Automatic annotation (TrEMBL):
One of its GO terms (molecular function) is efflux transmembrane transporter activity. This is RND family efflux transporter MFP subunit. It comes from Tunturiibacter lichenicola. Residues 1-25 form the signal peptide. GO terms for cellular component: efflux pump complex. Residues 69-219 form the Multidrug resistance protein MdtA-like barrel-sandwich hybrid domain. Belongs to the membrane fusion protein (MFP) (TC 8.A.1) family. Keywords: Coiled coil, Signal. It holds the Pfam family BSH_RND. The keyword Glycoprotein does not apply. The keyword Protein biosynthesis does not apply. Residues 99-140 form a coiled coil.
Length: 300
C-alpha cells in the first residue's frame, strides 16, 4: 500500500513539472517577439526624431489676400447677387443695402447746391454792376458833379455786395460738403470685392437687417499660400530672406513643396523665446488649405 502511494506521488510530480516547463516552440518564439518589439520601437523612434542635420517645425497655412467684409452702416440687405464659391472680380458688387432714403436726401442736397450756385453767380453779377456804379460815381465826384456822400454810398454798396458774395460762396461750399457726405454714406450701402478672388463664406441672407460691424462675407484672393512658423531664438541664424524650406501637409513629408522665406522677424519674442518666419509656397498640395497646419523642414 505504501509503495502504491509513493508511485502516485511521483507521477503527480512529473505531471506538474511537464505543465510548467516551456515548450521548444515557446522558447523559440520569445526571442522573435522581443526582436520584433525592438525593431518596432527603433522604427518609431526613427520616424519621430528628425536627423541631426534637419529641423522640423509646424505652422498654419495662411493667405495674404483674405478679408472679412463687414457692414459700415445699418440697413436691410436688398441685393445679394453672389454666394459661396462665386468667383468675383475686383470692384464687383457683393451685396447692397436699402438706400432709398439716402438717395432722396442726396437729390435734395444736390438741388440745394445748384440753387446756391445760381445765387452766387447772381451776387457776383450784382457786385460787378455796383463796382461799375462806384467807378462812375468816383469820376463824377472828381468832376464835382456829385457829392462825397453819393460816392461813399457807392463804395458801401460794393463792400456789401462783396460780403454777400463771400456768404453765398460759404453756403455753397457747405452744401457741397453735405452732398459729399451723403455720397459717402451711399457708398457704404454697396459692398464690393476688394480684389479678385472667390467668396469663401457668406454670413447673411437676403432681407436680413444688419448693423455696423456685422460680418457679411469672407473673400479669399488668388495670391500664393503662406506658411507662418516660429523658430527658437538660438536657431535664428538658420534662415534669411530668400532661403528655401520644405513644406508638407503631413509630418512624414510624403508630398512636399518648396517655400521661399519672405520675412524673418528681427527680434526674439521675450515671452516665448522664438522668432516669427513667413514663407511663400511655390505650389499647392492636397490638404494644404488656409487654416490647416503644415510641417516645415529646415536644413541646418
Amino acid at each position: 500500500m505504501k509503495r502504491l502511494f509513493a508511485v502516485m506521488i511521483a507521477a503527480a510530480g512529473l505531471l506538474v513539472s511537464l505543465g510548467c516547463a516551456p515548450s521548444k516552440a515557446q522558447l523559440h518564439a520569445a526571442p522573435v517577439q522581443v526582436a520584433h518589439s525592438t525593431e518596432t520601437a527603433k522604427s518609431q523612434l526613427t520616424k519621430r526624431v528628425p536627423p541631426p542635420h534637419e529641423l522640423v517645425v509646424s505652422g498654419p497655412i495662411t493667405l495674404e489676400q483674405q478679408l472679412d467684409i463687414v457692414a459700415l452702416r445699418s440697413g436691410v440687405i436688398v441685393m445679394l447677387p453672389v454666394d459661396v464659391d462665386t468667383v468675383v472680380q475686383k470692384g464687383q458688387l457683393l451685396a447692397g443695402l436699402d438706400a432709398r432714403q439716402l438717395e432722396a436726401d442726396r437729390n435734395t442736397a444736390r438741388y440745394k447746391v445748384e440753387s446756391l450756385e445760381a445765387d452766387l453767380k447772381n451776387w457776383q453779377s450784382e457786385l460787378q454792376v455796383r463796382e461799375t456804379d462806384m467807378r462812375r460815381a468816383e469820376a463824377m465826384h472828381k468832376e464835382g458833379i456829385t457829392t462825397q456822400e453819393a460816392y461813399d454810398h457807392s463804395r458801401y454798396e460794393v463792400a456789401a455786395s462783396q460780403f454777400e458774395v463771400e456768404r453765398q460762396r460759404g453756403e455753397m461750399l457747405s452744401a457741397k460738403a453735405n452732398l459729399q457726405s451723403i455720397d459717402l454714406e451711399l457708398e457704404k450701402t454697396r459692398f464690393v470685392a476688394p480684389f479678385k478672388g472667390v467668396v469663401a463664406q457668406r454670413y447673411v441672407r437676403l432681407g436680413q437687417y444688419v448693423t455696423t460691424g456685422d460680418k457679411l462675407f469672407r473673400v479669399m484672393g488668388a495670391s500664393p499660400l503662406e506658411v507662418r512658423f516660429t523658430l527658437p531664438g538660438a536657431e535664428a541664424v538658420l534662415l534669411k530672406r530668400g532661403d528655401l524650406v520644405t513644406v508638407s501637409a503631413t509630418p512624414e513629408f510624403q508630398q512636399t513643396t518648396a517655400a521661399t522665406v519672405t520675412h524673418v522677424s528681427p527680434v526674439v519674442d521675450p515671452g516665448s523665446g522664438t522668432i516669427e518666419v513667413t514663407a511663400v509656397l511655390k505650389s499647392r498640395l492636397p490638404g494644404l488649405i488656409p487654416g490647416t497646419v503644415a510641417s516645415v523642414r529646415i536644413a541646418r
